[in-house]
Each structure stands twice: as C-alpha cells, then as structure tokens.
Amino acid sequence: xxxxxxxxxxxxxxxxxxxxxxxxxxxxxxxxxxxxxxxxxxxxxxxxxxxxxxxxxxxxxxxxxxxxxxxxxxxxxxxxxxxxxxxxxxxxxxxxxxxxxxxxxxxxxxxxxxxxxxxxxxxxxxxxxxxxxxxxxxxxxxxxxxxxxxxxxxxxxxxxxxxxxxxxxxxxxxxxxxxxxxxxxxxxxxxxxxxxxxxxxxxxxxxxxxxxxxxxxxxxxxxxxxxxxxxxxxxxxxxxxxxxxxxxxxxxxxxxxxxxxxxxxxxxxxxxxxxxxxxxxxxxxxxxxxxxxxxxxxxxxxxxxxxxxxxxxxxxxxxxxxxxxxxxxxxxxxxxxxxxxxxxxxxxxxxx
Length: 352
What we know:
Elements: H1 2-18, H2 29-44, E1 51-52, E2 55-56, H3 63-75, H4 79-104, H5 107-118, H6 121-127, H7 133-147, H8 152-166, H9 170-173, H10 177-186, H11 193-217, H12 221-230, H13 241-254, H14 257-274, H15 279-292, H16 310-323, E3 328-330, E4 347-349
Antiparallel strand pairs: 1-2, 3-4
Helix pairs in contact: 1-4, 2-3, 3-4, 4-5, 4-6, 4-7, 4-16, 5-16, 7-8, 8-11, 10-15, 14-16, 15-16
C-alpha cells in the first residue's frame, strides 16, 4: 500500500510539473535570455565564460545554465528543453521539503508541507518556467536537509549542495548562512578539525574556479556581480516602507496560505515554550527564514525574489499547528485537502 501511495504521488507530481511543459513559447525575457546562454555553452564548450549576444555574461554563476545546456543537448532545442531542469528541480524541492518535515517532526508534517508548497501558485509558475528560482529552492532545501543529519558524510553532502546553491545565485545564497552557522555551532564538540578542513577544501574547489576565472578576465567582475547585480547597486534601499509591498507579494505568491502562515507564526511562540524538545528545529526554521527575509525590506524586491521563503513557510505552518494539536492530520487515498481552492490527495481534519 505504501509503495502504491508513493507511485500515485510521484505520478501526480510528474503530471503537475511536466504536462504540456513545452506547449507555449518562452514567455519572459529571462526565459529566452537564459536559454540562449545555455545554447552558447553548447556552442563554445566553455562553462567558465558565459555569453549572451556575443558578450560575456557575468550576472549569475553558471550552474543553472550548464544544466539547461545538458537538457538542450539531450532533448534538442525547444521550449521543453529550456524548462526541463527547472521543472525537475521544482518536483525535487517538493520531495526534499517532505523529507525535512519528516525529519524535524513527523511524516504528517512532511506531507502537509509538501502539499502547501505544491499549492502555492507562484512556486508552480516559476518551476514551469526556464528560470533559476526552482534550482535555487532545491539546493537551498537540500542543504538544510543534509545539515539536519549528524553523520560526517552528510556534512560533505551539505557543503556540495551549498556550493551548488552559490553557483546558481551567488549573493542570494548567502541568506542560508545563519542556519548553517547555527547548526555547525551546536555540533562544534563533535566535529573533528580534519572534517572541517576537508569540508572547506571541497567548498573552495567547487566554488572558486568560476569567480577566479572571470575576475582574471575582467577586473570589474566582482563589483558588477556582487554590487550592481547582487545588491542592485545604488538604486536599492532597505526600509520598513518596502515591507508592506513585499508582504503583498508574498500573499499573492502563496495565496490562502499567507493568513494561515501569520497565524502559525503566533502559534510557534507557544510551541517554543510548551514543546521545548523542538527548540533546535524551531531555531533552524526561524534562522532559515530570517536569512532570506532581508528581501522583505528591499525596494527592488519583486514577487519572484521571495520564492526562497516558500519552502520555509510551508514547513512552519504544519510544524506549528500539528505540534500543538490545532490541526489533526490523516492521509487517505482519494480524499481531498479541505482547504479552499486546493486539490490534493491529502485530508486535514479538525479546525484552526
């Protein structure tokens, strides 16, 4: 029965992310732009120097474009190829969020978190678009998942995943540092010095080549990549005034879950005092959210810039509500999620 449930769930996910994926033309400038950069990788065979319109492209690191180039090389030059890896990473993010929920609390939290993320409109929209958002969310979530394990090999896995995160979007990936530092600090007595040295070596080997190559090619690379693109330069300001607009974007992106999220944040305060055994996991979730919440205060924030918050939001809601018993959860084949306008094979019983 368990295998059948997994088969049904994966089949639904494949349908959601890949059905008619290539039936529409590339809808945004970014989609066409990124697909052209990927095609240029196949033409030049140079993964260190990205090109667009015969000029070097240094706005973003190469990993997302390399994966897109692989897709185009396998499936041919088409809209489906340009979007394939984004959709695959979107599907992968759902699975990783489920695994995180299961790891920090229970199977029920994992299923609920996956369902919440899957029902967030902008998550699906960007996952089916040839952009860098879905790969970023995948590496973001996978890094946290690996860090939650205490075995040495998982630390190496988390280093590789974090390197992939930075090689997808550099400065945005730094938002994961608070939770990384916290987890490593709590494990400081059990981490051997040689393990930390190996981890740092792996990270440097994976991350540094692209940055060193482009800095040697262009002395203004670091300023353009980190300041003009990463922080949006002088045009960007951080203020409380920008928070209102950003929260509106967040509400649009996750729909009905936004109000539930606000409720769950209040509930989580009670959880911290009443469920002290979960303090570590709450610290992870809140530091994870805090690291990326800087976008909420930026005047340059657009709706897609808030996507890194979606996996965290999806985990906080069921973790808080289920922990205090405010929501009773059960999974039943064929039943439908009893939340407005959302259709899935999961069923919530009880009240908020």
